[in-house]
Amino acid sequence: MNDFPDLGKLGSQSKLVFLSGAGVSAESGISTFRDSGGLWEKHNIYDVATPEAWRANQDLVLEFYNQRRKQLLQVEPNAAHRAIARLQDYFKVEVITQNVDDLHERAGSEKVMHLHGELRKSRSSVDDSLVYDIDGWEIKKGDLCEKGSQLRPHVVWFGEMVPMIEPAQELVSQADLLVVVGTSLNVYPAAGLLHAVRAGTPIIAIDPAPLDLDHFPRTYHLREKAGEGMQKLWLKLRR
Ligand code: APR
Fold this sequence. Notes:
By secondary structure, the protein is α/β, with parallel strands linked by helices.
């Protein structure tokens, strides 16, 4: 086990980059994907989260994301989202999230990059540049973009490109500290972002479960839930 990194040199000009996953929103009541009882235990990825699924059954795909959006509108950011946002008062903070929820933004984080899209937005199914805010919780069959095609969820499905990966790599390469919160690091290319840190940059992972960090040897693993782990990190950073 590595020692907890020395954070004493970090100051107001230091860049803290957070890479978050489903676990950061778990304490808000949103299911993760791969934990016991997680979303991918209840739904087949290939039925709801691939381009093939969209071609085969738009109703099912729309319904899956509509239900998730409905739930999102009923939950609130938690202590971990808020702690990350509060750190903006002391450091330059950037958030890269794999989550499609908007809880980082609602907690007050100003710089949030969504790697896998945004649940509260829809997109044209013929022109990726046409992205719209969704009013309420539903995309309905028959809701069309300005080019006349059915609107789809603005999410990155399995088998699709991750258009934000290069800007995300650039951000990580500028980090003075990378904090990875609530992700199983099972999904690439997001998990590979840990490789983009500059030599010597500390990485702290906050997650209650064991993580396979063999590829990321300099990472310190704080085995806590996001709220508790962020509280501990906050105290270290503010000391
Ligand atoms: N606090 C912090 N971490 C938690 C908590 C919690 N309260 N509860 C669970 N976790 C951790 C789990 O231990 C696990 O390591 O969150 C992680 C969730 O992992 P996944 O379900 O695999 O979610 P994520 O890593 O975000 O998935 C990546 O996969 O399905 C796709 O596109 C989807 O963005 C998602 C991507």
